[in-house]
Write the structure tokens for this entry.
Amino acid sequence: MSFRTLVVWLLGIPVTLVLFPFALFGYLVDRTGRMTHRVGALWCRVVLWLAGVRVVVKGRENLPEKDTPCVFAVNHKGAFDIPVLHAFLPHDFKWIAKKSLFYIPLVGWAMWLAGYIPIDRRLGGRAYLKSVNDAIERVRSGISVIIFPEGTRHPERGLLPFKKGGFVIATKSGATVVPVAISGTENVMKKGGVTIRPATVRVNIGGCINPQGMDDRTLCELTKKTIEKLLKEIEQ
């Protein structure tokens, strides 16, 4: 077991225990989940620091105003994509995440408190549609969401085929799509492994894509091409 793995587990658990009451307090004070989300961002920054992860962000000038709801579409390289994005995207947003993650003690409970959106694909199309409709209503109410169109982690170069389901959120709500490319998290923790290693992670934020006049498939294809270009810029 590597030194960084020991550090993250030995110190990360006490940090989680210390910060969870603040996440709970944030929910009691602000039922929108915004305060709990900020506590989560702090927790992510601490975990990244313990893991020795350096994050370089390019394209911050492309971000819409903080109060502008949008759909962040991001490629999925590794498990550390989530703490990197949570810590370094300044917007308040909601994750659309596997329902099983919400049952993880403390971390999963904080996800519930922050108002993130669970999805259980095992229950079929009706459950998936409910989660998508929930996300659409959140965006219409002024809240941003993050989607991983690949649907699973892909540590190799390039992208997996994009699933168009998440883009329904943008076309139905009218929210702009913010394409984001991330690279380097696959080196922090290998897929299927638990060993943590220091690494540099690069995030490249592209210009906003207005979904007006597009259907789900067209928006999906355009976003994929944009993320491919952004990814090449940081993988070279």
Observations:
- DSSP finds seven helices and seven strands in the chain.
- Helices lie at 3-29, 34-51, 81-88, 107-114, 125-140, 167-173, 216-235.
- The mean pLDDT is 92.
- Residues 3-29 form the longest helix (27 residues).
